[in-house]
Design brief:
Length: 359
Amino acid sequence: MSHRRNDQIDMVVPFVHFRDQRETMERPFFSIAKQKRLKEIDYTSPDGSVWVRVLPNQAYGMATIWDADILIWAASTICEMKKRGRNDIPRKLHFMPYDLLKGIGRETGGRQYKLLRDALFRLQSTSVRTNIRAEKAKRKERQFSWIDSFDDTIDEETNASRGMSITLSDWFYEGVLMDGGVLAIDPAYFGITGGRERWLYRIARKHAGGAGEGGFAISLPTLFEKSGAEGTYRRFKFEIAKIAKADELPGFVLRLEDKERGEPHLRMIRRDLVTDEVLVEAAPKPKRTRKPKAAPALPLFRHLSDETIALCRKAHPGWDVYGLKTEFDHWLEGDANREPKNYESAFLGFAERFVRDAN
């Protein structure tokens, strides 16, 4: 009986946070282009200590940054099981296509089901080689695909899926479970439509998330190498300048800084830490990222003011304000009648109850 249970759909859990695997956020592991990519990525860090090589399949192309949403879903599922105290966390995850698509903010029609299968083909057929996680003084490299395999059970009468499963690679699975292996991301990430914008969000979250008021600055040539982009540096520089001018990334401010000598730098700062009145006044107001029609009804684009953040931190020292915000958003999603008239006041009340109950 227990063997049959493992083959059933038992992996659908409500996410407290979405999690991304930290090491995949700052290196060029995925194509950021929407068109099929057949050119490999060959990246070496400036100091020569880290290298990544990604080889696409000639039939399916390279796994894209949109395909990586499936890996974010998988990492989030594993972290949720770990949080709930499950000891036998599997590499093979079972799910219904509808639940996965809805979870990552996608539409759930027949076309999206086909696109999901295409994404799984790319994740399985893309080959990655890297020395990340190699011990010092030891030469070690790993080769893997993002998923080892996937299954899809089809109803012969209706031709509808009765459930799917993916088996994660050892490398990705180990990376999610290791200490500090994941970072929480804003659910608004799934509404970002541009490949460069998605990639920039992951870079910003990785480097600027805990960098303080000064944020994180990186030269554009170095950023270009980290992107693995196929185009020219000149084109990349133009696109980054356009993205920085629009300044629409959820949670992060982008500023292009010209240097007296050399190429410009891109500075990334958490929006809640931008206190310079001139900078705030000059910055374009963040626009709402396009949300797919079938996306979860989360209040993705509500932001907490500096005053509310300060009040929350003072009342609950040691607690992650953004983690509490995510808890609150998911609680709101559970019932349309919970929609508050004053979001920030309701958030403070929720945080008070949540922290009290947790203690």
